[in-house]
Design goal:
This protein is mainly α and 217 residues long. Helices cover 64% and strands 2% of the residues. It contains 8 helices and 2 strands, in the order H-H-H-H-E-H-E-H-H-H. The chain has a two-stranded parallel ribbon. Helix 3 (45-54) runs parallel beside helix 4 (71-88) and helix 3 runs parallel beside helix 7. It starts with a helix and ends with a helix.
Length: 217
Amino acid sequence: MAAAAVANIGLMDSAYFVGRGEILSWINATLQLSLAKVEEAASGAVQCQLLDMVHPGVVPMHKVNFDAKTEYDMIQNYKVIQHVFNKLRINKDLTLDQERLDRVVGVVCMNIEVNRLVKGRPLDNLEFLQWLKRYCDAVNGRIMNENYNPAERRSKGCKERNHKGSNKSSKSLQANRLSSANSADGAPTTEKVCISTVMEDHYMEQIQQLSEKASSE
């Protein structure tokens, strides 16, 4: 089956009859992981890397959070998946319920309910992984990419993510320090100048008074 046609396979397709054990074995062997349940892929990071394997260079791996624990962080991974789908023109959209759409912008409403995935619902996660396996098999002909090093790709992606994050933090910290320094140095300096001016005027006035008194005597 052509990769483009896989996007719209029905639930009665043989892809959805692949068992959990086979799906987990495929993921673990392909990505060198040790998942015990399909729910452990709920963060979307595994799906991102599977797409990275069959479409090298298309997935921005530095945006993939393999340590995502909150629903918000997981949703960012699914946004990456949606970006890849759009880039590859895969007609498969991700959806959030309306309440969550009000809070999280950018994920389109169609046929994969992300809110069910991030909650770790076994059946929803299994179906998405079943579809993804069929898609990957259609793209690579079920032949493993021997040049793909999954552990290295994860490590590189994490390093790039941390590096970019530290750069942003560093710039923000520098800006805060500069602002603090200006406010800390500026106010006292102004105060000292004002005090010096007042004292100088006061002394000049006293000198003038003494001079006038001496002249009158």
